[in-house]
Design a protein that fits this description.
Elements (H helix, E strand, L loop, with lengths): L1 H29 L27 E17 L5 E6 L6 E2 L4 E5 L2 H68 L8 H40 L11 H26 L1 E3 L4 E6 L6 E2 L9 E16 L12 E5 L7 E14 L14 E9 L12 E7 L6
Antiparallel strand pairs: 1-8, 1-12, 2-4, 2-7, 3-6, 4-5, 6-8, 8-11, 9-10, 9-12, 10-11
Length: 390
């Protein structure tokens, strides 16, 4: 028992210590060693003393070349499958030139349908207008009927007056032997008939006036009797024609939107859509087609907010392309955007805060330099500071 106790007391710790040392050695021997990585480009260099300036007083910034007025990211107005692409990278386009076309068969069918609606509405309007001359003739006929009925009344009244006068003459004879009783009765009956004819003529006049009112009412639905202005039926038909024409115009506009055109004259910088692909109706981050205006290439420079106080628009500025620190390109200031914005082009340094804000100054690159033909290239930019210490 004593020998076993000594083994457990001293042997096991020794074995454990030896195992730990062996494991530590294996970890140290087999740990990964990262090879030394060279920078992807030569580091940014300060202006040389030979440039004749104080090297301790300049502002360093990053610039990206862009076309004049920035690149235009073209999107589709309406979602759909692209039918054809009319341009390629490098093409010069004029304002209004077609860039690509979204599938149009449904929109063309809609235009044909709306055009047929316009034809139908115009036909209905023409049909309603053709009703007006017969209605006017009907009004004139009714007016003639009223005049004829009035004349019939006057004739009947004159005949009645004559019959009544004959009755009065017969009744005024004192000697009953001078005129027969039958003649007196005949004259009275004739007067009664004449009175009935007057009543018939009056009724006929009322009927003629009713026909005139009805004819004038029918005409008034289509045209005014006095001025000839359009009536409510014609106005409604004209409104239907206008509505159909507006729907046709809208269908044509929808069809036209399926052909995406260049808003400006310039050069095609990038084409990110192909025939048969689906074009969304939202602006993608890269644009389906990217257009750049003609003219001098601009360099958009982001000046950190800590250097804004030292920046002067009139100061000398020059740039070096990334990867070619020895090349110096003189810059000419185009304009400065006064709105200070959040920094979008981060360098990736751990000390840089994402809430950094920058002032954007836009410079022109001399057209005679090789860099003037590149768009989207990064440059290291140096601007002489107006005062203060870096």
């Amino acid at each position: 028992m004593s020998r076993r106790s000594k083994l457990l007391t001293f042997g096991l710790p020794l074995i454990g210590g030896a195992a730990m040392l062996a494991g530590t050695g294996m970890v140290v021997e087999n740990r990964p060693v990262a090879p030394e990585e060279l920078p992807p480009r030569p580091p940014t260099t300060s202006p040389a003393v030979s440039d004749g300036i104080d090297v301790s007083r300049f502002i360093g910034a990053i610039g990206i070349s862009e076309p004049r007025g920035e690149a235009i990211l073209i999107a589709a107005h309406t979602s759909g499958v692209v039918e054809s692409v009319a341009v390629a990278v490098g093409d010069e386009v004029a304002a209004g030139d077609a860039l690509f076309i979204v599938e149009r068969s449904r929109a063309e069918a809609e235009v044909a349908l709306r055009r047929a609606d316009v034809i139908v509405a115009e036909g209905e309007l023409a049909s309603l207008r053709s009703i007006i001359p017969p209605l006017r003739a009907g009004v004139r006929s009714a007016q003639a009927g009223v005049a004829s009925a009035a004349a019939d009344i006057r004739v009947a009244e004159a005949d009645l007056a004559d019959r009544e006068n004959l009755v009065r003459i017969a009744e005024s004879v004192a000697d009953p032997r001078a005129i027969a009783a039958e003649e007196v009765d005949r004259r009275r009956f004739a007067a009664s008939q004449a009175e009935a004819r007057v009543a018939t003529a009056v009724a006929g006049s009322a009927e003629a006036e009713a026909r005139l009112i009805e004819a004038e009412a029918q005409l008034a639905r289509y045209a005014a009797a006095d001025s000839g202005a359009d009536g409510p039926e014609i106005i409604a038909a004209r409104a239907r024609v206008t509505s159909a024409q507006r729907e046709l115009d809208q269908a044509k506009a929808d069809l036209a939107l399926l052909t995406v055109r260049s808003p400006v004259a310039g050069r095609v910088l990038q084409v990110n859509i192909r025939a048969g692909e689906f074009a969304p109706a939202s602006v993608p981050s890269e644009g389906l087609v990217v257009i750049g205006r003609g003219g001098p290439v601009h360099l958009r420079v982001e000046i950190d907010e800590v250097d804004i106080a030292r920046f002067s628009p009139g100061s000398r500025a020059w740039a070096s392309p990334r990867g070619d620190a020895g090349q110096r390109i003189d810059l000419q200031l185009a304009y400065v955007e006064p709105l200070v914005v959040p920094k979008a082009n981060l360098s990736g340094r751990t000390s840089e805060r994402v809430d950094t804000r920058v002032l954007q100054a836009v410079y022109e690159i001399d057209a005679g330099t090789a860099a003037a033909s590149s768009i989207g290239q990064q440059f290291d930019v140096y601007i002489e500071a107006s005062g203060g210490t870096p």
